[in-house]
Specification:
424 residues, 434 Repressor (Amino-terminal Domain), mainly alpha, 19 helices
Protein backbone atom coordinates (compact mmCIF):
# COMPACT_ATOMS: atom_id res chain seq x y z
CA UNK A 1 0.00 0.00 0.00
CA UNK A 2 1.55 3.37 -0.94
CA UNK A 3 2.66 5.56 1.91
CA UNK A 4 0.69 8.84 2.30
CA UNK A 5 2.63 11.85 1.12
CA UNK A 6 2.35 15.29 2.68
CA UNK A 7 0.44 16.67 5.63
CA UNK A 8 -2.57 14.35 5.43
CA UNK A 9 -3.85 15.58 8.80
CA UNK A 10 -4.50 19.08 7.51
CA UNK A 11 -6.01 17.82 4.28
CA UNK A 12 -8.34 15.47 6.17
CA UNK A 13 -9.39 18.26 8.55
CA UNK A 14 -10.01 20.60 5.61
CA UNK A 15 -12.24 18.11 3.81
CA UNK A 16 -14.02 17.16 7.04
CA UNK A 17 -14.82 20.84 7.65
CA UNK A 18 -16.46 21.06 4.23
CA UNK A 19 -13.65 22.76 2.27
CA UNK A 20 -13.15 20.40 -0.65
CA UNK A 21 -10.49 22.56 -2.32
CA UNK A 22 -7.50 24.54 -1.11
CA UNK A 23 -9.10 27.67 -2.57
CA UNK A 24 -12.19 27.12 -0.43
CA UNK A 25 -10.02 27.06 2.69
CA UNK A 26 -8.22 30.27 1.73
CA UNK A 27 -11.59 31.98 1.18
CA UNK A 28 -12.79 30.81 4.60
CA UNK A 29 -9.64 32.14 6.29
CA UNK A 30 -10.05 35.51 4.58
CA UNK A 31 -13.67 35.75 5.71
CA UNK A 32 -12.99 34.65 9.29
CA UNK A 33 -10.00 36.91 9.99
CA UNK A 34 -11.97 40.21 10.39
CA UNK A 35 -14.44 38.44 12.69
CA UNK A 36 -11.52 37.60 15.00
CA UNK A 37 -10.22 41.17 14.98
CA UNK A 38 -7.50 40.52 12.38
CA UNK A 39 -8.37 42.72 9.37
CA UNK A 40 -6.40 42.42 6.17
CA UNK A 41 -5.21 38.84 6.68
CA UNK A 42 -5.20 36.87 3.43
CA UNK A 43 -3.75 33.46 2.63
CA UNK A 44 -3.22 32.16 -0.89
CA UNK A 45 -3.60 28.70 -2.38
CA UNK A 46 0.18 28.46 -2.65
CA UNK A 47 0.46 28.82 1.13
CA UNK A 48 -2.14 26.12 1.76
CA UNK A 49 -0.27 23.89 -0.66
CA UNK A 50 2.88 24.37 1.44
CA UNK A 51 0.91 23.55 4.59
CA UNK A 52 -0.22 20.29 3.03
CA UNK A 53 3.32 19.36 1.98
CA UNK A 54 5.52 16.82 3.76
CA UNK A 55 7.31 19.56 5.74
CA UNK A 56 4.72 22.29 6.44
CA UNK A 57 6.09 25.62 7.71
CA UNK A 58 4.99 26.83 11.15
CA UNK A 59 2.26 29.46 10.63
CA UNK A 60 2.54 32.91 12.19
CA UNK A 61 0.42 33.61 15.33
CA UNK A 62 -2.46 35.44 13.59
CA UNK A 63 -2.67 32.78 10.90
CA UNK A 64 -2.59 29.97 13.49
CA UNK A 65 -5.45 31.61 15.35
CA UNK A 66 -7.67 31.88 12.28
CA UNK A 67 -6.74 28.45 10.92
CA UNK A 68 -7.58 26.66 14.16
CA UNK A 69 -10.81 28.64 14.42
CA UNK A 70 -11.89 27.70 10.89
CA UNK A 71 -11.02 24.00 11.21
CA UNK A 72 -11.90 23.60 14.89
CA UNK A 73 -8.71 21.72 15.84
CA UNK A 74 -5.45 22.51 17.60
CA UNK A 75 -2.51 23.48 15.41
CA UNK A 76 -0.41 20.41 16.32
CA UNK A 77 -3.34 18.09 15.54
CA UNK A 78 -3.42 19.67 12.08
CA UNK A 79 0.06 18.28 11.41
CA UNK A 80 2.20 21.31 12.22
CA UNK A 81 5.28 21.15 14.45
CA UNK A 82 6.77 24.20 16.15
CA UNK A 83 10.43 25.20 15.71
CA UNK A 84 10.97 24.82 19.46
CA UNK A 85 10.25 22.22 22.09
CA UNK A 86 11.74 19.05 23.54
CA UNK A 87 13.27 16.69 21.05
CA UNK A 88 16.42 15.91 19.14
CA UNK A 89 18.19 18.88 17.59
CA UNK A 90 20.36 18.82 14.48
CA UNK A 91 23.32 17.34 16.36
CA UNK A 92 23.76 14.30 18.57
CA UNK A 93 23.95 14.94 22.33
CA UNK A 94 27.45 15.60 23.52
CA UNK A 95 28.83 16.56 20.13
CA UNK A 96 30.51 19.93 19.82
CA UNK A 97 28.66 22.48 17.73
CA UNK A 98 30.82 23.67 14.88
CA UNK A 99 31.22 27.36 14.16
CA UNK A 100 29.25 27.03 10.94
CA UNK A 101 26.48 24.84 12.38
CA UNK A 102 22.93 25.96 11.62
CA UNK A 103 20.79 27.37 14.37
CA UNK A 104 18.89 24.55 16.09
CA UNK A 105 15.34 23.88 15.08
CA UNK A 106 13.61 21.75 17.70
CA UNK A 107 10.28 20.11 16.95
CA UNK A 108 7.26 19.26 19.06
CA UNK A 109 5.58 15.90 18.77
CA UNK A 110 2.12 16.08 17.24
CA UNK A 111 0.02 16.27 20.41
CA UNK A 112 -2.81 18.64 21.33
CA UNK A 113 -1.68 21.99 22.73
CA UNK A 114 -3.47 21.25 26.00
CA UNK A 115 -1.15 18.31 26.59
CA UNK A 116 1.92 20.54 26.91
CA UNK A 117 3.16 20.45 30.49
CA UNK A 118 4.12 23.65 32.30
CA UNK A 119 7.15 22.58 34.31
CA UNK A 120 9.21 25.76 34.55
CA UNK A 121 8.76 28.69 36.95
CA UNK A 122 7.96 32.11 35.54
CA UNK A 123 11.47 33.29 36.49
CA UNK A 124 12.99 31.11 33.76
CA UNK A 125 12.16 33.83 31.21
CA UNK A 126 14.10 36.41 33.24
CA UNK A 127 17.05 34.06 33.63
CA UNK A 128 17.16 33.17 29.94
CA UNK A 129 16.90 36.85 29.07
CA UNK A 130 19.90 37.66 31.29
CA UNK A 131 22.13 35.26 29.34
CA UNK A 132 20.85 36.68 26.05
CA UNK A 133 21.77 40.16 27.27
CA UNK A 134 25.28 38.97 28.21
CA UNK A 135 25.80 37.49 24.75
CA UNK A 136 24.74 40.82 23.26
CA UNK A 137 27.49 42.59 25.21
CA UNK A 138 30.10 39.91 24.49
CA UNK A 139 29.56 40.21 20.73
CA UNK A 140 31.66 43.35 20.51
CA UNK A 141 34.83 41.81 21.92
CA UNK A 142 34.68 38.01 21.81
CA UNK A 143 35.91 36.23 18.68
CA UNK A 144 32.97 35.03 16.58
CA UNK A 145 34.34 31.49 16.35
CA UNK A 146 34.12 31.30 20.15
CA UNK A 147 30.84 33.16 20.73
CA UNK A 148 28.81 31.67 17.91
CA UNK A 149 28.60 28.09 19.28
CA UNK A 150 27.58 29.45 22.69
CA UNK A 151 24.78 31.50 21.12
CA UNK A 152 23.56 28.45 19.18
CA UNK A 153 23.46 26.35 22.34
CA UNK A 154 21.55 29.12 24.09
CA UNK A 155 18.97 29.11 21.30
CA UNK A 156 18.69 25.33 21.71
CA UNK A 157 17.93 25.86 25.40
CA UNK A 158 15.30 28.47 24.57
CA UNK A 159 13.59 26.09 22.14
CA UNK A 160 13.42 23.43 24.83
CA UNK A 161 12.11 25.81 27.51
CA UNK A 162 9.45 27.62 25.49
CA UNK A 163 6.69 24.98 25.66
CA UNK A 164 7.40 24.42 29.37
CA UNK A 165 6.66 28.01 30.39
CA UNK A 166 3.19 29.25 31.30
CA UNK A 167 1.57 31.66 28.80
CA UNK A 168 2.03 34.85 30.89
CA UNK A 169 5.83 34.46 30.80
CA UNK A 170 6.08 32.82 27.38
CA UNK A 171 6.14 36.01 25.23
CA UNK A 172 9.10 37.33 27.20
CA UNK A 173 11.01 34.10 26.68
CA UNK A 174 10.09 34.05 22.99
CA UNK A 175 11.35 37.63 22.60
CA UNK A 176 14.69 36.70 24.17
CA UNK A 177 14.87 33.64 21.91
CA UNK A 178 14.24 35.87 18.90
CA UNK A 179 17.10 38.14 19.98
CA UNK A 180 19.36 35.10 20.38
CA UNK A 181 18.53 33.92 16.86
CA UNK A 182 19.08 37.45 15.56
CA UNK A 183 22.53 37.60 17.16
CA UNK A 184 23.42 34.20 15.70
CA UNK A 185 22.30 35.41 12.27
CA UNK A 186 24.32 38.61 12.59
CA UNK A 187 27.45 36.63 13.46
CA UNK A 188 26.88 34.28 10.53
CA UNK A 189 26.39 37.11 8.06
CA UNK A 190 28.70 39.92 9.16
CA UNK A 191 31.43 38.03 11.04
CA UNK A 192 31.64 34.67 9.29
CA UNK A 193 30.22 35.56 5.83
CA UNK A 194 27.75 32.66 5.76
CA UNK A 195 24.72 34.35 4.15
CA UNK A 196 22.77 31.16 3.42
CA UNK A 197 22.90 29.96 7.01
CA UNK A 198 22.23 33.49 8.23
CA UNK A 199 19.04 33.55 6.18
CA UNK A 200 17.81 30.32 7.77
CA UNK A 201 18.64 31.57 11.26
CA UNK A 202 16.91 34.90 10.68
CA UNK A 203 13.80 33.04 9.53
CA UNK A 204 13.71 31.31 12.92
CA UNK A 205 14.24 34.67 14.60
CA UNK A 206 11.16 35.95 12.79
CA UNK A 207 9.15 32.93 13.95
CA UNK A 208 10.17 33.55 17.56
CA UNK A 209 9.39 37.27 17.23
CA UNK A 210 5.94 36.34 15.96
CA UNK A 211 5.44 34.04 18.95
CA UNK A 212 6.34 37.00 21.19
CA UNK A 213 4.21 39.38 19.08
CA UNK A 214 7.22 41.73 19.10
CA UNK A 215 6.80 43.97 16.05
CA UNK A 216 10.08 45.87 16.50
CA UNK A 217 12.06 42.64 16.70
CA UNK A 218 10.23 41.49 13.58
CA UNK A 219 11.21 44.73 11.83
CA UNK A 220 14.86 44.30 12.85
CA UNK A 221 14.95 40.72 11.59
CA UNK A 222 13.34 41.62 8.26
CA UNK A 223 15.80 44.49 7.76
CA UNK A 224 18.68 42.07 8.31
CA UNK A 225 17.26 39.76 5.64
CA UNK A 226 17.22 42.80 3.34
CA UNK A 227 20.95 43.16 3.99
CA UNK A 228 21.45 39.65 2.60
CA UNK A 229 19.45 40.40 -0.54
CA UNK A 230 21.14 43.77 -1.00
CA UNK A 231 24.62 42.29 -0.81
CA UNK A 232 23.53 39.78 -3.46
CA UNK A 233 22.43 42.81 -5.56
CA UNK A 234 18.87 41.51 -5.58
CA UNK A 235 17.23 44.92 -5.32
CA UNK A 236 13.63 43.73 -5.72
CA UNK A 237 13.91 41.33 -2.80
CA UNK A 238 15.70 43.91 -0.65
CA UNK A 239 13.07 46.58 -1.31
CA UNK A 240 10.23 44.16 -0.61
CA UNK A 241 11.74 43.15 2.72
CA UNK A 242 12.34 46.76 3.69
CA UNK A 243 8.67 47.53 3.01
CA UNK A 244 7.78 44.70 5.38
CA UNK A 245 10.30 45.92 7.95
CA UNK A 246 8.87 49.45 7.89
CA UNK A 247 5.35 48.07 8.25
CA UNK A 248 6.31 46.16 11.39
CA UNK A 249 8.19 49.19 12.71
CA UNK A 250 5.03 51.31 12.44
CA UNK A 251 3.11 48.73 14.42
CA UNK A 252 5.77 48.76 17.12
CA UNK A 253 5.98 52.55 17.41
CA UNK A 254 9.62 52.71 16.41
CA UNK A 255 11.89 55.40 17.79
CA UNK A 256 13.65 57.96 15.60
CA UNK A 257 16.88 56.00 15.94
CA UNK A 258 15.18 52.80 14.81
CA UNK A 259 13.58 54.49 11.79
CA UNK A 260 16.89 56.12 10.86
CA UNK A 261 18.56 52.70 10.99
CA UNK A 262 15.97 51.35 8.55
CA UNK A 263 16.86 54.20 6.19
CA UNK A 264 20.54 53.31 6.60
CA UNK A 265 19.90 49.64 5.83
CA UNK A 266 17.96 50.50 2.70
CA UNK A 267 20.70 52.96 1.71
CA UNK A 268 23.29 50.20 2.06
CA UNK A 269 21.21 47.94 -0.17
CA UNK A 270 20.76 50.66 -2.79
CA UNK A 271 24.49 51.40 -2.69
CA UNK A 272 25.28 47.73 -3.26
CA UNK A 273 22.91 47.76 -6.22
CA UNK A 274 24.58 50.86 -7.73
CA UNK A 275 21.87 53.38 -6.84
CA UNK A 276 23.96 55.84 -4.87
CA UNK A 277 21.70 58.83 -5.52
CA UNK A 278 18.76 57.04 -3.90
CA UNK A 279 21.03 55.91 -1.09
CA UNK A 280 22.24 59.44 -0.33
CA UNK A 281 18.64 60.65 -0.28
CA UNK A 282 17.77 57.92 2.25
CA UNK A 283 20.73 58.87 4.44
CA UNK A 284 19.71 62.52 4.31
CA UNK A 285 16.24 61.51 5.44
CA UNK A 286 17.75 59.46 8.28
CA UNK A 287 19.73 62.48 9.43
CA UNK A 288 16.54 64.56 9.48
CA UNK A 289 14.71 61.84 11.44
CA UNK A 290 17.45 61.79 14.08
CA UNK A 291 17.42 65.57 14.30
CA UNK A 292 13.64 65.62 14.85
CA UNK A 293 13.74 62.92 17.52
CA UNK A 294 10.67 61.08 18.83
CA UNK A 295 8.82 60.22 22.01
CA UNK A 296 9.43 56.48 21.60
CA UNK A 297 12.45 54.70 23.04
CA UNK A 298 14.89 52.45 21.22
CA UNK A 299 14.90 48.80 22.39
CA UNK A 300 18.02 47.95 24.43
CA UNK A 301 18.95 45.11 22.07
CA UNK A 302 19.47 47.55 19.18
CA UNK A 303 23.03 48.41 20.14
CA UNK A 304 24.48 48.41 16.63
CA UNK A 305 23.40 51.87 15.49
CA UNK A 306 24.08 55.51 16.39
CA UNK A 307 24.55 58.84 14.57
CA UNK A 308 28.22 57.89 14.18
CA UNK A 309 27.27 54.61 12.55
CA UNK A 310 24.93 56.49 10.22
CA UNK A 311 27.85 58.69 9.20
CA UNK A 312 29.84 55.53 8.44
CA UNK A 313 27.07 54.41 6.07
CA UNK A 314 27.18 57.87 4.51
CA UNK A 315 30.93 57.82 4.00
CA UNK A 316 30.78 54.47 2.21
CA UNK A 317 27.99 55.68 -0.07
CA UNK A 318 29.88 58.89 -0.85
CA UNK A 319 32.87 56.74 -1.75
CA UNK A 320 30.83 54.54 -4.10
CA UNK A 321 29.24 57.66 -5.62
CA UNK A 322 32.69 59.07 -6.44
CA UNK A 323 32.45 61.97 -3.98
CA UNK A 324 36.00 61.41 -2.79
CA UNK A 325 36.73 64.61 -0.76
CA UNK A 326 33.36 64.35 1.00
CA UNK A 327 33.87 60.66 1.74
CA UNK A 328 37.34 61.31 3.19
CA UNK A 329 36.04 64.06 5.47
CA UNK A 330 33.05 62.01 6.63
CA UNK A 331 35.05 58.87 7.34
CA UNK A 332 37.83 60.67 9.20
CA UNK A 333 35.20 62.23 11.46
CA UNK A 334 33.68 58.79 12.03
CA UNK A 335 37.07 57.32 12.90
CA UNK A 336 37.60 59.99 15.55
CA UNK A 337 34.09 59.58 16.96
CA UNK A 338 33.95 55.79 17.23
CA UNK A 339 33.98 54.59 20.87
CA UNK A 340 36.78 52.23 21.95
CA UNK A 341 34.51 49.16 21.95
CA UNK A 342 33.60 49.61 18.26
CA UNK A 343 36.61 47.68 17.00
CA UNK A 344 34.68 45.79 14.33
CA UNK A 345 33.24 48.96 12.85
CA UNK A 346 36.69 50.55 13.01
CA UNK A 347 38.09 47.94 10.59
CA UNK A 348 35.32 48.76 8.10
CA UNK A 349 35.93 52.51 8.34
CA UNK A 350 39.69 52.04 7.95
CA UNK A 351 39.04 49.89 4.89
CA UNK A 352 36.80 52.56 3.39
CA UNK A 353 39.42 55.23 4.08
CA UNK A 354 41.98 53.05 2.31
CA UNK A 355 39.58 52.78 -0.64
CA UNK A 356 39.18 56.57 -0.67
CA UNK A 357 42.94 57.00 -1.02
CA UNK A 358 43.12 54.39 -3.78
CA UNK A 359 40.38 56.23 -5.66
CA UNK A 360 42.44 59.42 -5.27
CA UNK A 361 45.59 57.64 -6.57
CA UNK A 362 47.38 57.76 -3.21
CA UNK A 363 48.72 54.23 -2.67
CA UNK A 364 50.89 54.99 0.37
CA UNK A 365 48.13 56.35 2.67
CA UNK A 366 45.83 53.62 1.31
CA UNK A 367 48.30 50.96 2.45
CA UNK A 368 48.71 52.70 5.79
CA UNK A 369 44.95 52.62 6.49
CA UNK A 370 44.75 49.01 5.31
CA UNK A 371 47.63 48.11 7.65
CA UNK A 372 45.80 49.66 10.59
CA UNK A 373 42.72 47.61 9.71
CA UNK A 374 44.82 44.42 9.64
CA UNK A 375 46.20 45.30 13.09
CA UNK A 376 42.65 45.46 14.39
CA UNK A 377 41.55 42.29 12.59
CA UNK A 378 44.39 40.42 14.28
CA UNK A 379 42.74 41.30 17.61
CA UNK A 380 39.04 41.09 16.65
CA UNK A 381 38.15 39.12 13.54
CA UNK A 382 35.41 40.59 11.35
CA UNK A 383 34.82 39.11 7.91
CA UNK A 384 33.10 42.26 6.65
CA UNK A 385 36.23 44.26 7.53
CA UNK A 386 38.47 41.75 5.76
CA UNK A 387 36.27 41.99 2.66
CA UNK A 388 36.97 45.73 2.60
CA UNK A 389 40.74 45.12 2.72
CA UNK A 390 40.60 42.57 -0.07
CA UNK A 391 38.69 45.06 -2.24
CA UNK A 392 41.38 47.66 -1.53
CA UNK A 393 44.15 45.25 -2.45
CA UNK A 394 42.50 44.47 -5.78
CA UNK A 395 42.17 48.20 -6.48
CA UNK A 396 45.89 48.64 -5.72
CA UNK A 397 46.86 46.44 -8.70
CA UNK A 398 48.27 49.39 -10.74
CA UNK A 399 50.78 50.04 -7.91
CA UNK A 400 51.57 46.43 -6.98
CA UNK A 401 55.31 46.94 -7.58
CA UNK A 402 55.42 49.80 -5.07
CA UNK A 403 57.14 48.93 -1.80
CA UNK A 404 54.15 49.98 0.30
CA UNK A 405 51.93 47.52 -1.59
CA UNK A 406 54.47 44.73 -1.20
CA UNK A 407 54.65 45.48 2.51
CA UNK A 408 50.86 45.28 2.66
CA UNK A 409 50.99 41.90 0.90
CA UNK A 410 53.46 40.68 3.50
CA UNK A 411 50.90 41.61 6.17
CA UNK A 412 47.89 40.36 4.27
CA UNK A 413 49.46 37.00 3.46
CA UNK A 414 51.53 36.24 6.53
CA UNK A 415 51.04 32.80 8.06
CA UNK A 416 48.63 33.88 10.76
CA UNK A 417 46.35 36.01 8.60
CA UNK A 418 46.30 33.53 5.70
CA UNK A 419 45.44 30.55 7.89
CA UNK A 420 42.89 32.61 9.80
CA UNK A 421 41.16 33.77 6.61
CA UNK A 422 41.08 30.28 5.04
CA UNK A 423 39.85 28.73 8.28
CA UNK A 424 36.90 31.10 8.34
Amino acid sequence: MPRPIGNTRLKAARVAAGYNSQQALTDAITRAAPQLGIPGLAVGVRQVRRWESADPPWPQPDVRRVLTHVLGQDIEVLGFTAPWGPGQGPQEPGRAVSTSAPAPRMRLTSVPAQAALVTQPATVSTDFEAVTRSHRHLYWSVAPAILHPAVLEHSRLGCALLPEVAPPARPRLAAALAETYLLAGRIQFFDLREPEQAGETLFRALQAAGEADDSLMGAAVLAHTAFISGWDEDRDAAVERMVAARTYARRGRASAEFRAWLDAVEAECETRCGNTRIALHLIGHAEDVLADGSEHTTPPWMDWFSPTRLAAFKGNTQLKAGHIPQARETLLQVLDALPPESNKQRTVVLGDLAAVEVADSNPQPACAFAGEALDQLALTWYATGMDRIREVRRALAPWQKEQCVRDLDDRLYDWGMTVSALQR
